[in-house]
């Protein structure tokens, strides 16, 4: 068992290292599921086989010690050297290969269940959601608001709420579902979304916007035009780069592309049933639905709602719109 367990642990380490160095596309949900299954099997084996074996060995040791003492007493020897307590502790102790498998199962299964069905942590890797979310923000995503989904296969098993305009949502990137993206829901099924001359219109109605003081992006070391826009029930902030044209360049072919029309002024799309149109708050620095299309319901991961840590700026901690 030691050699087999060492091989299993080495396989997990090898997968993690390959993922870290970019040799494979990692899937943390799958890795956590497999770790839960493997450590769960060891935990059951420990509870119903290995531990009873060690307990029987301790019982045999105790029986032998009692028999030895009785034999010595019959011989008139009352002072008996030797304490088996230390030997009992060693016999009951888990070997390393059980400590690193069965011993980790309770922690791994709790993390797996919390992450799969309640809240999942993410790190913001890019500036596409500035000023709402900054690079380095560590956020929590609600996994049940839009319906509970089975981990790994992402199959919805409860209906939940429908995504609303203005929600900040994490989803599987349609061109490459192994990647998770985060954007704001701009268009829901049936909406006609137009982003022309950097002005957002939903179903023919331009959204209300108010100019705010320019935003200084520390990473880019420059100022950007900042606005407040009301999308859904609550307002949120967005950025525009005056140097970038309204024209959408570098469009990829995508399913439902016939629902969109592109001009020098921007893009207009009719959102298909069961799909969503997503945009970043950093409007001129966001690779979003304007470029790669709609997000189907099956790709939804959850609703982002809280920054739980930013190691360079603790003031970032808190809820956001």
Structure, explained:
The protein is of the alpha+beta class. The strands form three sheets. Strands 1, 2, 3, 4, 13, 14, 15 and 16 form an eight-stranded antiparallel beta sheet that branches. Strands 7-6-5-12-11 form a five-stranded antiparallel beta sheet, with no helix packed on it. Strands 8-9-10 form a three-stranded antiparallel beta sheet, with no helix packed on it. The protein is built from six helices and 16 strands. The mean pLDDT is about 90. The radius of gyration is 29 Å and the shape is elongated. The chain is about 30% helix and about 25% strand.
Estimated helix fraction: 25-40%
Q: What letter string, H or E per element, gives the SSE order? A: HHHHHEEEEEEEEEEEEEHEEE
Unreliable residue stretches: none
Average per-residue pLDDT, rounded, comes to 92
Residue share in β-strands: 25-35%
Radius of gyration using CA atoms only: 29 Å
Task: Give a short summary of the structure.
Helix content is 30%, strand content 27%. The protein is of the alpha+beta class and 321 residues long. The strands form three sheets. Strands 1, 2, 3, 4, 13, 14, 15 and 16 form an eight-stranded antiparallel sheet that branches. It has a five-stranded antiparallel sheet with strand order 7-6-5-12-11, with no helix packed on it. A three-stranded antiparallel sheet has the order 8-9-10, with no helix packed on it.
Labels describing this entry:
alpha+beta, 321 residues, five-stranded antiparallel beta sheet, eight-stranded antiparallel beta sheet
How would the blueprint of this fold be written?
Layout: H1 2-20, H2 28-74, H3 85-92, H4 96-99, H5 105-117, E1 119-123, E2 138-142, E3 168-172, E4 180-187, E5 192-196, E6 199-202, E7 205-206, E8 209-217, E9 222-231, E10 234-240, E11 260-263, E12 266-270, E13 275-279, H6 289-292, E14 295-296, E15 300-309, E16 318-319
Antiparallel strand pairs: 1-2, 2-15, 3-4, 3-15, 4-13, 5-6, 5-12, 6-7, 8-9, 9-10, 11-12, 13-14, 15-16
Helix pairs in contact: 2-3, 2-5
């Amino acid at each position: 068992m030691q050699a087999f367990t060492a091989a299993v642990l080495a396989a997990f380490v090898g997968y993690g290292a390959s993922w870290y160095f970019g040799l494979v596309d990692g899937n943390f949900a799958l890795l956590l599921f497999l770790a839960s299954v493997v450590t769960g099997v060891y935990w059951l084996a420990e509870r119903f086989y290995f531990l009873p074996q060690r307990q029987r060995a301790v019982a045999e040791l105790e029986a032998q010690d009692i028999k030895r003492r009785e034999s010595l007493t019959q011989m008139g020897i009352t002072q008996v050297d030797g304490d088996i307590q230390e030997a009992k502790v060693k016999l009951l102790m888990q070997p390393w290969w059980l400590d690193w498998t069965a011993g980790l199962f309770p922690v791994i299964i709790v993390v797996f269940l919390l992450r799969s069905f309640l809240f999942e942590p993410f790190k913001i890797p890019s500036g596409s959601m500035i000023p709402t979310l900054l690079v380095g923000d560590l956020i929590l995503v609600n996994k049940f608001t839009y319906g509970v989904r089975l981990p790994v296969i992402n199959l919805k098993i409860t209906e939940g709420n429908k995504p609303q305009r203005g929600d900040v949502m994490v989803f599987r990137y349609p061109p490459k579902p192994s990647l998770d993206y985060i954007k704001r829901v701009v268009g829901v099924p049936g909406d006609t979304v137009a982003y022309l001359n950097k002005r957002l219109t939903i179903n023919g109605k331009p959204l209300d916007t108010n100019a705010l003081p320019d935003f200084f992006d520390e990473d880019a070391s420059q100022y950007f035009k900042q606005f407040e826009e009301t999308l859904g029930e609550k307002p949120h902030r967005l950025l525009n780069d005056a140097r970038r044209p309204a024209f959408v360049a570098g469009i990829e072919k995508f399913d439902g592309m016939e629902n969109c029309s592109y001009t020098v002024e921007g893009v207009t799309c009719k959102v298909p049933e069961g799909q969503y149109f997503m945009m970043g708050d950093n409007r001129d620095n966001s690779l979003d639905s304007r470029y790669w299309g709609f997000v189907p319901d099956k790709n939804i991961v959850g609703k982002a709602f809280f920054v739980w840590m930013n190691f360079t700026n603790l003031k970032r901690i808190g809820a956001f719109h």
